[in-house]
Amino acid sequence: MPRLAANLSLLFTEEPFLDRFAAAAACGFAGVECLFPYDWPASEVARRLADHGLTQVLINAPPGDSEAGERGFAALPGREADFRDSLDRALDYAAAVGCGRVHVMSGVADPGTVPGTVPGPDPARLEATLVANLAWAAPVAAARGVTLMIEPLNTRDMPGYALTRSAQAARVIDAVGAPNLALQYDFYHMQIMEGDLTRTLAARLDMIGHVQFSGVPDRNEPDDSELDIHVLLARLDALGYGGWCGAEYRPRGDTRAGLAWARGYGIEG
Question: Residue 235's domain is classified under what CATH number?
Fold first, then answer.
């Protein structure tokens, strides 16, 4: 059976952030993930995790100035120092909350453009920068027991993002060659960009370290979707995937009321 984690940046927003841990546990989730937890002391997050028997399965590294459109630095030439600072902060936080996976965002190369277009940024230079930064970062993270994740994002929601395809992510992972660098495979983003998810899951399984999902195209509950979440989760089981699957969607209303899709996996609203 899939191991489901609740994304507390999007789910249970009826509650203040620190109270969402209790809400997730009460519904049966054993794991939680979140985007950017840095506004809350790691010691307090660690206490909530321990109090409710939860595992923090994923956090994102700090993205930079999100108000200005920054979404990480890993593929951005000239931002190497920012990338290293972001990673250091993420690794410190991950250690404090017992989290073994950190998503390092590749970055928006040029807001409003798509890599490879004219006069957009050079995709080869972005990819080379991503490889170089991750080659530096992987042993740093390994020394602290952390696996780094890279995630392709769709160009509709994130124009100009430097990593958008699973094949591109696979090239980067192969080029770095680090055992603690893995693919974060999000059904939502990959359905928009590629489709053919069941075949891609089989082809990329060896490098997938975390899965996320939501409904397509509106990123609501996965029972309101052009994808069949139950088919995809069963496919992961059949392939032998043993990692976490993060429910990363925006509920249409009350989070608990929208959990009917998860009852077959031990989750109750």
Answer: 3.20.20.150
